[in-house]
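COMPLEX REQUEST
Ligand: nicotinamide-adenine-dinucleotide
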Amino acid sequence: MATRTIGFVGLGNMGGPMAANLVRAGFAVRGFDLDPASLETAKAAGIGIAGSVPEAAAGAEAVVTMLPAGRHVVEVWSQLTAAVPAGTLLIDSSTVDVASAREAHALADARGCPAVDAPVSGGTGGAKAGTLTFMAGGSEAAFTAAEPILKAMGRSVFHCGAAGAGQAAKICNNMILGISMIGVCEAFALGEKLGLSQQALFDVASVSSGQCWSLTTYCPVPGPVPASPANTGYKPGFAAALMLKDLRLAQAAAGTAGASTPLGAEAERLYAAFDGHGHGGQDFSAIIHMLRGPGEQP
Ligand code: NAD
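STATUS: Structure written out below.
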C-alpha cells in the first residue's frame, strides 16, 4: 500500500511531537516551521523538512497546522488554499478565536477543500504520549476524513458540530478549568488560615461535592497528588500565560455572542494580574501563591 503523506505547519512544543506521532503511525510527514531549531528537532524525529508552506503541502492528502494564534492560521491557510488541489483535507489544531477558525473554514470552502478546526486538550505531555483529546468542528464528511489522522495523535476525538464548534468547545472547557482552579486554590488558602491540613481538605473534597479535575489531577499544593506540577516547583504543565490566552478567547467570544460570563471575566482578570507579576511561565496552578495574598508570593 502506498505511504500516505501529510503536510505539517508549526512544529513547536505541541506540533513537533504531534508530527512525530504521525511518523510513528506510518505516515510520511513533510513539515515546515519558521524556526530553524524546531526544524532540526523535527528532522531528528523522521519528519521531512520543507522550505515553505506550499512545499510542505505538495502532494499531501492532508495538511495539519499547529500555530500560535488566529492571525497565523488565517495567513498560513491563505497560502495553503492558494497552493493545494481541491479536495486536500485541512486540519487546524491550534487554539484560536472562533471568528478566525470560521475565516479559515471559508478559505477552505472557497478552494473546495474539506476542513476541520480540531483544537486539543492535554498539553505537551499529551502531545508526546499521543494521548491528546481532539474536539473538532466541520462537516460530517470532513470529520470522517480527519478522524484517523487525529487518532494517530490522540486518544479521544469528538465531533462537536459545524465550523468553529471545536474552538467553541475548547474555550468553554478551559473557562471551566480556569475558574475551577481558582476555586480550588481559594479553598486551600482559606483552609490553611483555618488550621485545616492540606491533606485533610484534599481527602474530604476529592470524594465530596467539591471534587473536580483541578483538585484530583492537578492539585495546586504539593503532596496529595504526587504527579501535579505543585510537586515540581510549578514547572508547566500548562503555563499560566496559555491559560490567560484561552480565558481572553473565551471573553472575546462571550462579548461577540452576548453571553454573560462574570466568573470567566474575573478569572481572566486574576490570570492577567498573575502574568503581569511575571509568572506567566509557571504552571497555571501556581496562581495559589497570588491568591494567598501579599507576602506569600513564590
Ligand atoms: P509554540 O510557540 O511552541 O509553536 C508554534 C510554532 O509555530 C512555532 O515553532 C513557530 O515558529 C511556528 N510558526 C508561527 N508562525 C508560523 C508560520 N507562518 N509558518 C510556519 N510556522 C510558524 O506553541 P505551542 O505550545 O506548540 O502551541 C501551539 C498551539 O497549541 C497554540 O495555539 C496553543 O494555544 C495550543 N495549545 C498549546 C498547549 C500547550 O500546552 N503548549 C496545549 C493546548 C493547546
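REMARKS: The two ends are 56 Å apart (CA to CA). The chain has 13 helices and nine strands.
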